[in-house]
Design a protein that fits this description.
The protein is of the alpha/beta class. The protein is built from six helices and nine strands. It has a four-stranded mixed sheet. It starts with a helix and ends with a strand.
């Protein structure tokens, strides 16, 4: 909405008015709700898994191993939740005492929750990628999309989902798949 429209709404008595400067496309790409008649194609948030294992760059590899559990990767975040790297494959060859910042893979690819699902799944199949990190436009982690979940979503297999807020991470939202 324009600044002029925001001021007009305040003038009409609305108390919670925000001027979203980044525009509609950024809003949609963030996976936030929109209104209209477009039925919408499947997007990344339709197959998103939240709460993947995470650690900090100053943790040691032993801590990352404990956090990993049965997962294949651990995502490395800073204090604000911004994705710095990922511990996967060759990272696990490091000894327990090595710091995560020395063993992590830097700059993992991320996508936005509102990105179209079909082309992404096609790329993931071509590149034999099992999962991809999902972040907001500021680089903060939202979750992980596994290729199998994306393929299931595209095939219209029943997947129930709900949008939730995240009290511990201001400005974030989480999309949770419910089985």
């Amino acid at each position: 909405m324009s600044a002029r429209a925001a001021w007009r709404l305040e003038d009409l008595g609305f108390s919670k008015v925000y001027n979203y400067d980044d525009g509609r496309k950024d809003w949609e790409t963030a996976g936030l709700p929109i209104e209209g008649t477009d039925p919408g194609l499947p997007v990344v948030k339709d197959a998103l898994r939240v709460d993947p294992p995470v650690c900090r760059p100053d943790d040691d590899v032993a801590t990352a191993r404990r956090v990993r559990g049965d997962e294949t990767q651990v995502i490395v975040l800073n204090e604000e939740g911004v994705v710095l790297g990922v511990m996967r494959k060759e990272s696990w060859d490091s000894t327990d005492a090595v710091l995560v910042r020395e063993a992590m893979r830097l700059g993992p690819s991320t996508v936005r929750p509102g990105d179209s699902l079909a082309p992404l799944i096609g790329r993931m199949q071509e590149e034999d990628t099992e999962s991809i990190l999902v972040s907001d436009s500021e680089g903060r982690l939202i979750g992980v999309m596994d290729r199998a979940d994306g393929e299931a979503s595209l095939s219209r297999e029943p997947v129930q989902s709900s949008l939730e807020t995240c009290d511990s991470c201001p400005g974030w939202w989480r999309y949770r798949l419910v089985s």
